[in-house]
Amino acid sequence: MNSFKSRYQSFSRNPLFMPLLITLVLILINLVLQPNFLEARVIRLNILTFSPLMLVAMGQAIILIGGNLDLSVGFGVSLLNCFVAINMSLEPGMAGHNALVLSAGLVIAVAMGLVNGVIVGMFKVPSFIATFATSFIWLGVAIMIAPIPGGAVTPQFAQFFKASLGPVNVMLLIILIAMCAWQVIRHFRTGRYIYAIGSSWEASYANGIRVHRITLASFALGWCFVYLGTLALTAQTRAGDSALGEPFALNSIAAAVIGGVSLAGGSGSPVGAALGAITLSIVLNIIYFLGLPTSLQVLVRGIIIIAALGATMVAKNARARTAT
After folding, report:
1. Which of 123, 125, 167, 241 could be a cystine partner for 130, CB 3.0 to 4.6 Å?
2. Where are the chain's structural domains?
3. pLDDT (tens digit, 9 = 90+) per residue, 244-291?
4. CA–CA distance, 93 with 109 (Å, rounded to integer)
5. SS3 for 168?
6. Residues 307, 52 contacting (CB under 8 angstroms)
């Protein structure tokens, strides 16, 4: 009994404890309202629906851990979505062309992250202001690429994300690989330094860490995850739309914070951000199955999100008091 109690107390101090608990509670509520929620078909559809925000939130989390935030990821998703969909439609039957488009998209995503990183890390512009400004650049380019919704990805591209390897959905596998990749990166010097500069920029600089380079690395890594989320979203929409990514900016930040990532930097995990994204997505499910009138849906969603954020912050403060 004592052993179980000690294990519970140890696990309850884990930063992922509260995000996981919130997710489980919401899953139970959703299950009551939607009895087939745990059927294989429904689970597969939910993974496809939830995955874009999960991956974008993981990218946002990496940037937040480094002590910054990125308000441009929303319209960045729009730009990348338009680029992939429009250019893939030019030569739909050419596998080499499509591979080139996807590779170019990754290069563009990393470049977008580096642009933000240079402005924030080298020119010392606060990330809130810098990325708010670049978001409109990304939107402008997205509109130039696709003035109206259009383009089309290949059926093979869309089917890839819906496919399964045995019992495992490919999209779920991509998310798990992304999580494992971060767990590996965080144990290397770059990963440790991202946490360090998020905790204290000045102390990191005083200890010889090249803060500017690590800031660049955090933005570049974060945008790799944003690109994966964009591909998952594009596979669902199968077309480009410059307005498609707008909700992702604030939703990714909310998901990360619900998942235990600190807005002050230096703590949290992209895994927690993914759980936060699941929380936000299940909230939408619950509201839908409650059958609430449109006038109440936004209000109820806001109340549930605030409650989730409050529970996460209470748990975080409790861990801080225990540590001291």
Report:
1. 125
2. 33-323
3. 999 999 999 999 999 999 999 999 999 999 999 999 999 999 999 998
4. 24
5. strand
6. no
Tokens of 178: 């992304």
Across 99-227, the runs of DSSP E, i.e. the strands, are: 164-165, 168-169
3-class DSSP assignment, residue 14: coil
The 10s digit of each residue's pLDDT in 224-248 is: 999 999 999 999 999 999 999 999 9
Cβ–Cβ < 8 Å for 230, 57 = no
For residue 93, with 0-12 CB atoms within 10 Å meaning exposed, 13-18 middle and 19 or more buried, which class applies?
exposed
Does the pTM surpass 0.90? The reply is yes
State the DSSP code for 89: T
Helix (H, G, I), strand (E, B) or coil at 165: strand
Give the helix ranges, DSSP H, for 259-293.
270-290
Residues 89, 151 contacting (CB under 8 angstroms): yes
34 within 8 A of 286, measured Cβ to Cβ: no
CB atoms near residue 46 (< 10 Å): 17
C-beta separation of 129 from 112 below 8 A: no
